Amino acid sequence: MRIGGALALDWMADLQALEHVTGALDDAGFDSVSIAGHVLTAPPGRYDRPAATYALPYRDPFVLFTHLAGASKSIRLRTAILILPLYPTALIARQAADLSQISGGRLELGVSISWQEAEYAALGQDVHVRGRRFEEQLEVLRLLWSQPFVTFHGRFHDFDDLGLGVVPEHPIPLLIGCSPQERLLRRVARLGDGWLPVVDPTEHVQQLHELAREAGRDPAALEIVARIGTGPAAPPDPAAEVARLRAGGVTDVTLSPPPGSSPQEGLAAMLAAKDAVAAAAA
């Protein structure tokens, strides 16, 4: 089982702190570091959601990860998640391929959709077709990453012998973030390299594996990620929790810094938690 750490949204304004935390996680043997965020920021209180979800300044993940790739050696760089339908697919393909090369193949794209209609409108995208466009985007991304030139005529994409001109040397995993509704799990089973769930995944792993087999795919190839809080938000016995998740089919855990913690506090909590769970994850 792999162990990752997360960069809190409210740390995004401090680039030096992001660099320090990423380097320290890398030095401590963490397998991945993940970030979340949006493109645009809304005023606090506009939505009945936690302020960190929509009201903080964010960072473009490709720009930030390019910087962090130079400040680290082996840790994998994961978006968790990138709201894929907000972007032109060819642009994401180009940026991801370049970042994968710059980082030595360390990029993992966690992707999903969002309900925030105002952000879709501001970026010129139709929120009402986001699910169907998302599925076609996944297909097109894989074509652009596997062929130097692509011909594809779909509902949302029209490529006539165009492409990135070069096939990325390293595979770029596409992990899908979603809830465990059956129609969404079917999407993961058909199109994803893994699942970034919003709930405890262990109750749904068997169903996801069955859907993968129905889709003609190897269930064992799917990465399944769970989150574990640290500090005051940690489970009573983190090692036992990791053992439970592992027995339930989870392949990857992400340690989250305590809510409201400073970068220094959050890093210390994640480092302490890793020491406690490493044996159970081995």
Any overview of this molecule?
With 282 residues, the chain is of the alpha/beta class. The protein has a single domain (2-281), classed as TIM Barrel, CATH 3.20.20.30. Helix content is 39%, strand content 19%. It is built from ten helices and ten strands. It has helices spanning 15-27, 51-54, 61-70, 89-102, 117-122, 130-144, 182-191, 205-214, 238-247, 263-281; strands at residues 2-6, 32-35, 76-83, 107-112, 150-153, 158-162, 174-178, 194-197, 223-229, 252-256. An eight-stranded parallel beta barrel has the order 1-2-3-4-7-8-9-10, surrounded by six helices. It has a two-stranded antiparallel sheet with strand order 5-6. α1 packs parallel to α10 (263-281) and α4 packs across α6 (130-144). The radius of gyration is 18 Å and the shape is globular.
List keywords for this structure.
10 helices, TIM Barrel, two-stranded antiparallel ribbon, 282 residues, globular, 8-stranded parallel β-barrel, alpha/beta
Strand order of the largest sheet: 1-2-3-4-7-8-9-10
Shape: globular
Indicate the mean pLDDT.
95
- The secondary structure category is alpha/beta
* Major β-sheet profile: 8 strands, parallel, barrel
Percent in strands? 15-25%
What count of structural domains? Answer: 1
CATH superfamily: Luciferase-like domain
Q: Could you please say which CATH topology applies here?
A: TIM Barrel
Give the proportion of residues in helices. 25-40%
How many beta-strand segments?
Answer: 10
Highest-level CATH class: Alpha Beta
